[in-house]
Write a structure and sequence with these properties.
Layout: E1 7-11, H1 23-34, E2 40-43, E3 55-58, E4 61-64, H2 66-77, H3 87-115, H4 118-123, H5 129-146, H6 153-171, H7 184-198, H8 204-212, H9 214-227
Parallel strand pairs: 1-2
Antiparallel strand pairs: 1-3, 3-4
Amino acid sequence: MSSQPKIVLYQIGRGPQAPSLTPFAVKLETFLRMARIPYTNQHGRKRSPKGKFPWMIYNGKIISDSQFCIDFLNQNLNIDLNSHLNPEQRAIARAFQKMAEENLYWCLVLCRWVYDNKDWLHRVVCLPKLLIWVVGRNVKSQTNGHGIGRHGYEEMLQIMETDLRAISSYLGDKQFLFGDKPCEADAAIFGQLSQFRWHMPGTKGEQLVSETFANLRAYCERMKNAFWPDWEECITDNGKRKATK
């Protein structure tokens, strides 16, 4: 019998109301739980060689980027959370994942660091105002390069709402993206939605996920209940306590 691989997941630490402030850490850790892969967390500021979070070490091998980590685990552990999907559904899953991670995500970071969430980051996450300002400048520069940052605030909100509406419309009354059984893309979509649901208080994004598109709120709760039974141990509860995991 082959020995269990040693997997160490490196991430920036726990968040106030969701397990991480980065949707990509929530994505990767949710995938590990969905695939029932044992792992240990290493919380801190140690970045991958690519300068990214999250990343992992698998039996001594460094893998950077959440999706490359998932692809590596799929290949090396013979995992396929999409085995119940046909080719058309796999294509749709990838399209929705890329929309969420390459378009909707930039709306999220603009709201968080440039427009709406800066006071919350200071009061609750306890980030220094100078750091928030510096990161905000970097985010604005990055999003200008992406293109989405060149739009006005209301136009950016329109893009956000259109993306969230698309996810909501496709999800409908299904339990997960493609029915009663979750797939790999569910981890990615949940990662992004978790930030709007729990880490964007008082913003348009929170209102859209928690009220306008009520099925997205219910979806977040289903994913949380299914794969995060220890959720309360993995959050800092608005800085009132330390996460224990």
